[in-house]
Amino acid sequence: MDAERLRAYLLTFPHVIETVQWGANLVFWVGDKAIGGKMFAVLDLDEPAHPQSAAAGKRQPVIAYAAGAERFAELLELDGLIPAPYFARIHWVAALRWDVFSAVEWQRELSAAHELTLNKLPAKVRAALALPAAKRKALIAGKRKLLAAKGKG
Known about the structure:
153 residues, alpha+beta, Aspartate Aminotransferase, domain 1, 6-stranded antiparallel beta sheet, 6 helices, 6 strands, 42% helix, globular
């Protein structure tokens, strides 16, 4: 598995939005952020920021994703998975390399992350996602405009 194949796979899930944040990180959301969508995976496309860290054996994660409270500790027992920097408190794990899982296992893990996040969305956000595409698009555009006017977009 690699970042490009995983990206293509993640974009097949329902209601997935992709943004670029924090440098060269692809952030995958269930639902648009403007209507209260939540992140479920972050792909790091940056080369190691600090060559001395790589030389010292410190590797930055290639991906972080929502694991959920039930699986968090179990996943951390696997070689190559660590608590996700900044997100461990919400039970996210991070992979230091792609070979932690096979392609099928990656698909299963990320499908579970998407489902977990979708199920945790507030009823109001799920209702917005259930709208017909044109109405949902108009709602998102209106919310983005409102956020931009408030200086938060």
